[in-house]
Amino acid sequence: MGDTFPQIERSSRGLMQPPVALAAVIGIGIVIESLRRSRPRRQSALRGTRAALSTYLREHLSGSDAATQLVERLRKTHAGTEDGRLFGTLFEEFQHEREVVEAVLASLGASGRSAKRLAANASASVLKLTAGGEPGALSLFRTLEGLSIGVQGKRCLWRALRGLDLAAPAPGSSRFAELESLAVRQWEALERRRLSLVSATFAAEPRMTPRRERAC
């Protein structure tokens, strides 16, 4: 009798182990299944964010295409002048910046081509013919102002990219910080020239001195 209770205790422990083990197996199975199901959602979300970023970059490329075409024409029509030198510098810098955006798109496995970008290129080809003009012309003032606004938008792009962990061959965040600083310098140069043309563009007409009537 003395050995009966230990045997019952040992047998009861054996009976308790399978349910516990089964519960552990079920628990592991639930975890694995939840991970398996969440993986497609994460992958789908990743594809969604990459698609959104690609669209955003292509939109900026469209603006860059238009700005590059514009300054390319203006550096030729204003060759040998202060404005020509400014537009020549911007042309080289805009080209380099466009290559950076295309490199980021390539690192995402995306193309820079889109129907929207082709349409924007066609529109820019037409609009650039009416841009520019001589100092004092409203068209030149508007052109400088439009470029200033575009450069500020580009600065927003570089600031946004600084917060992302992009894979090579895209530049690192420090490179984006340098590009943002370059955008600031471009804006300052455009603004200096734009403001210097305010008086010449909007100078008031000289007032006519009223004629005095002769006394009788």
What is the molecular shape? Answer: elongated
Counting structural domains, the number is 1
Number of helices: 6
Instruction: State the helical fraction.
Output: over 70%
- Contiguous low-pLDDT stretches (5 residues minimum) are 8-16
CATH topology: Ferritin
Q: So, CATH architecture? A: Up-down Bundle
**Annotation, overall tally of beta strands:** 0
Mean pLDDT, nearest integer? 77
Task: Please explain how this structure is put together.
This protein has 216 residues and is mostly helical. The chain has a single domain (29-200), classed as Ferritin. The protein is 77% helix and 0% strand. The protein has 6 helices and no strands. Helix 1 packs parallel to helix 3 (115-127) and helix 2 (82-107) runs antiparallel to helix 5 (173-196). It is elongated, with a radius of gyration of 33 Å. The termini are far apart. The relative contact order is 0.09.
Please name the defining characteristics of this protein.
216 residues; 6 helices; Ferritin; mainly alpha
Question: Layout of SSEs?
Answer:
Blueprint (H helix, E strand, L loop, with lengths): L3 H74 L4 H26 L7 H13 L10 H25 L10 H24 L1 H5 L14
Helix pairs in contact: 1-2, 1-3, 1-4, 2-5, 4-5
In short:
With about 220 residues, the protein is mainly α.
